[in-house]
Amino acid sequence: MLVEVKEIQVRHNGTLYEKGASFSLPANQYERIKAHVIVLDEEDEPAADPDKDIDEMTVPELRAHAEKLRIDLGEATKKDDILEKIKAAAAAN
């Protein structure tokens, strides 16, 4: 499910999301933060194809990929910024 932060910051999986930021989360985790977010899309995001090149992934796929790898995206919301964070984390490991 894709949600957007309403007013106060929301922490999800170690990442702090500011007002207006959107992120994906499993539907079963929605209940604990529902007062602080707006649902943008109720469908669960598809998992990223492991054979798909990271540069070809969509923003939701990149977010899911980063979450799976426990990469903190900080305030990155644009594809280029998310890619930069993921590639930097990969280079650091």
Can you walk through the features of this model?
By secondary structure, the protein is of the alpha+beta class. The chain has one domain. 26% of the residues lie in helices and 19% in strands. The strands form 2 sheets. Strands 4-1-5 form a 3-stranded antiparallel sheet. A two-stranded antiparallel sheet has the order 2-3. A hairpin with a 2-residue loop joins strand 2 and strand 3. The protein is globular, with a radius of gyration of 13 Å. The termini are far apart. 17% of the residues are buried.
Strand order of the largest sheet: 4-1-5
Q: Pick out the low-confidence regions.
A: none
Mean pLDDT: 86
Query: In angstroms, what is the radius of gyration?
Result: 13 Å
Shape: globular
Give the percentage of residues in beta strands.
Answer: 15-25%
Secondary structure tally, helices: 2
Count of the separate structural domains: 1
- Helix percent reads 25-40%
Q: How many strand units?
A: 5
Largest sheet: 3 strands, antiparallel
Distance between the termini: 29 Å
Structural class by sheet pairing and helices: alpha+beta
Listing every helix as H and every strand as E from the N terminus to the C terminus, the arrangement reads: EEEEEHH
